[in-house]
Amino acid sequence: MTVDLKKYPAIAEYAKKTAEPTWFTELRTKSLEKASSLELPSFEKIRYQRWPIQLEQPLEKKGSRKELIETLKPEQTGNMVVQLGQNTLELKISSEMQDQGVIVCDWQTALREHGDLVQKYFMQKAVKFDEDRLTAQHVAHLTSGLFIYVPKNVVLKEAFTSYFFQDATAKNDYVHHVIIVVGENSEFSYLENLKTVGEQATTANIIVEVVAQENSHVKFASVDRLGANTTTYLNRRGHLKKNAKIDWSMGMMNDGNIVGDFDSDLAGDGAHSEVKIVAISTGKQVQGIDTRVTNIGKHTIGHILQHGVILSRSTLTFNGIGHIIKGAKGADAQQESRVLMLSNKAKGDANPILLIDDNDVTAGHAASIGRVNQEQLYYLMSRGLPKKVAERLVIIGFLGPVLAAIPSKVIRAQLKATIERKLIDGQKDE
Amino acid sequence: MSTLEVKDLHVSIDGKNILKGVNLTMKTGEIHAIMGPNGTGKSTLSEAIMGHPAYKVTQGEVLLNGENILELPVDERARAGLFLAMQYPAEIPGVTNAEFIRGAINARRPEDKPLSVRSFLKQLDKTMSVLDMTEEMADRYLNEGFSGGEKKRNEILQLMMIKPKFAILDEIDSGLDIDALKVVSRGVNQMRGPEFGSLIITHYQRLLNYIVPDVVHVMMGGRIVKQGGPELAKRLEDEGYAGLRDELGLDIKLVDEEA
Ligand SMILES: Nc1ncnc2c1ncn2[C@@H]1O[C@H](COP(=O)(O)OP(=O)(O)OP(=O)(O)O)[C@@H](O)[C@H]1O
Ligand SMILES: [Mg+2]
C-alpha cells in the first residue's frame, strides 16, 4: 500500500468498518490530498462558491433513527430501493431483472462484491475524480449510493425506482453516488426520487454516472425534492457510446440552494441525448442549473429543453451549453431555455451558450425570460378560479411543452403532482 | 330572482374616458341586447362589469342583488354569479378544456364536495352534443389553436356548464357561420329561465331572431341613448345609427362616417 493510512484515521476506521476494497480507500486518500489544490467548478452566472457546499466532516459510518424509518414507506412495493441516509432499508428486484443477470446493489455491497466492475466505471468515463474540488471531496467522503449493471442484450420492460431520503434530522453531510451501466443493445428505465427528511442545515454532494454502451437506450427520470436547509451539489453525467441514447427527464423541485450540473458526453458516433428539465424556485432559494451536451462523435444529437418558474424572492438560472467538438461532422445541438417570473422580486436567467468547433453541423437556441400573461390570468379568474389557482394553471401550461415531451406517462403524472405541491407551498410566501 | 344594476358608470382606459354614465337594470329571466357602433364602449362596459384590471371605474356602481361588486376581485364576481363570454377569449396552452371547466365548477362548490369526475363527464358530454362539439375538443388545450367559431362555441360551453346568474355575451355571433349561429343560439336559449339573465352585445339583428330579447339598448358615445323592444333592433338594421343619432340630436361622430 502506497498511502499511509495513519495520516487519515477517519478513513482508516471507516474502511475497516465497511470492509471496502483497498483500491477504493486509496482513491479516497488520493482525492483528499488533491482536493485542496483543485478549484471549485465554475458555472456561468451561478455564484455558489460562498455557500456551505464543501464537505468538511470526517468520514464516518452513521445510522438513522429507527422511528424515522417507519415514516418512509413509499407506495410502491416492488422493483425499487429505499435508502435513508447511509443505509438501505429495502431493496426489491423484479424477477425479470434477476433472471437476466441485472445487478442492483447498494454502494458498500457493490464495492465488496462487484469491486472489479465498480473500479472499471467509477469516475472513469462520465466524471473524473480529480475534475475539480467538489468531485475530489465527493470521493473522499462518499458513504452511500447505488450500483446498477444491466448486461448486454437485456431489454427491461419495467422501470426501476429508487427512493433516496437524505437524513437531515442530524447535521450530517450526504455524499451519495449512483452508477448505472447499461450494456450493448440493452434498454433500461430508471426513476430517482431524491428527498430530504429533517430540517438541519446540511450539505449534499451527489454524483450520478450513466454509461450507455453501444446501441443502448436509457430513460433516466428524477424528481428532486431536497429540503430548504440542504445545500446541494448535484452532478448527473451521461457517457454515451456509438448509437446510444439517453432520455433525461428531471424535475428540480428542491427547496434549498442547489447547483445542478447535468452533462452528456456524446462520445460515440450517432449518440443521442435528450435533456428535459422543469424547475421551480420558491421562497429565497437559489437554483443554478448548468446543462451541457458535448457532441464528440459524428452525427450525434444533443437537445436541451428546460423550462422554469420563479416565485417570491427566489432565483433560477438556466445555462444551456451545446458544445460541438471539431470532427463531430453532422452533429446537431439544439436548446431552448425559458423562465417565467411570478413576482417582481424574483431573479431569473436563461443563458444559451453554443461552442461550435466544426462547420458541418446544425445548431440552434432559444431563450426567454417572461412574466405571467395577465390576459390569461384574467380569463381564468373570470370563470371563478381564485388567482392562485389560475396562476398554477398558467404555470403548468408554461411547463407543458417539457412535461409533454417526457416519455413516461407515470413520471409525467407524478411530476405534475409534485409541481402542484411545490407551487402551493411556494405561493404561501407570495 | 336576481338583479344586476349598472348606475351612472364612468370608465376610462389609459386615461381616456370611454363610458360616460351608463345606466342599465336587468333581472334574471330577462334577455337584454346592446347594439351600438364600433368603438362606442360596449366591450368596455362588459369588461368593467367583470373587473378587467385595465378598465378603471371613475364613477358610479355596479350592483348585484343590491350589493356593489366593484370592490370584488374578478374571481369573486364570477363566483357571485357573473359570466362574460369574451369577444377575444385568451388561449391557455397546457391546460385542457375539460380540466379547466371542472376546475371552474369546483371553485363554486365546497372544497370537500367537488363534483365527481363521472357526473362531470356526463354533463360535459351532454352539453357538448347540444353545441355540436366533437369530444376531442374537451381534451384540447383551452382555446389553443381554436378557430374563431370554435372559440365562441367554447365560451357557450363554459356558460352552460358553469350556469351563472348573469351572462354577458360580447359578440358571440361574430365569426360564426349560419349553422353555428343556430347552434350557439340553441345553447343560450336552453339556459333561458327564471334563474338566468343575459346581456347580449351584437352588431347583427340576425342573432336576435334566434335569441329574442326582452329589451334592446342602443349605446352611443359611451352612454345608453335609447331602449326599446326587439323592433328597435330591426329599425337599426334598416336605418343604421346615423338616423337615430340625428333624431336624438346627439353630437357623436361615427367611425365610418365621412368627415
Ligand atoms: N387598451 C386600450 N387602450 C386605449 N384605448 C382603448 C383600449 N381598449 C379600448 N380602447 C378604446 O375604447 C373605445 C371603446 O372600445 P370598446 O372595445 O369598448 O368598443 P366596442 O363598442 O366594444 O366596439 P366594437 O363594436 O368594435 O367591439 C375604443 O375607442 C377603443 O379604441
Ligand atoms: Mg367590442
From TrEMBL, chain A:
What the entry lists under InterPro entries is as follows: Fe-S_cluster_assembly_SufBD, SUF_FeS_clus_asmbl_SufBD_core, SUF_FeS_clus_asmbl_SufBD_sf, SUF_FeS_clus_asmbl_SufD, SufBD_N
Q: Which GO terms describe its biological process?
A: iron-sulfur cluster assembly
Q: Which residues form the SUF system FeS cluster assembly SufBD N-terminal domain?
A: 97-159
The domain of life is Bacteria
Domain SUF system FeS cluster assembly SufBD core residues, every copy: 171-398
UniProt record similarity statement:
Belongs to the iron-sulfur cluster assembly SufBD family.
Sorted alphabetically, which NCBIfam families does this protein's record hold?
sufD
Give the protein's recorded name. Iron sulfur ABC transporter
What organism is listed for this UniProt entry?
A: Liquorilactobacillus sucicola DSM 21376 = JCM 15457
TrEMBL record, chain B:
Q: Which Pfam families match?
A: ABC_tran
| InterPro entries hit by this protein | AAA+_ATPase (IPR003593), ABC_transporter-like_ATP-bd (IPR003439), ABC_transporter-like_CS (IPR017871), FeS-cluster_ATPase_SufC (IPR010230), P-loop_NTPase (IPR027417)
Q: Which Gene3D superfamilies does the entry link to? A: P-loop containing nucleotide triphosphate hydrolases
Domain ABC transporter, residue spans: 4-246
> Which keywords does UniProt give here?
ATP-binding, Nucleotide-binding
**Species name for this entry?**
Liquorilactobacillus sucicola DSM 21376 = JCM 15457
Q: Return the similarity comment.
A: Belongs to the ABC transporter superfamily. Ycf16 family.
The protein in question is named ABC transporter ATP-binding protein
Q: Does the keyword Transferase apply?
A: no
The terms under GO molecular function for this entry are: ATP binding; ATP hydrolysis activity
The organism's taxonomic lineage, starting at the top: Bacteria, Bacillati, Bacillota, Bacilli, Lactobacillales
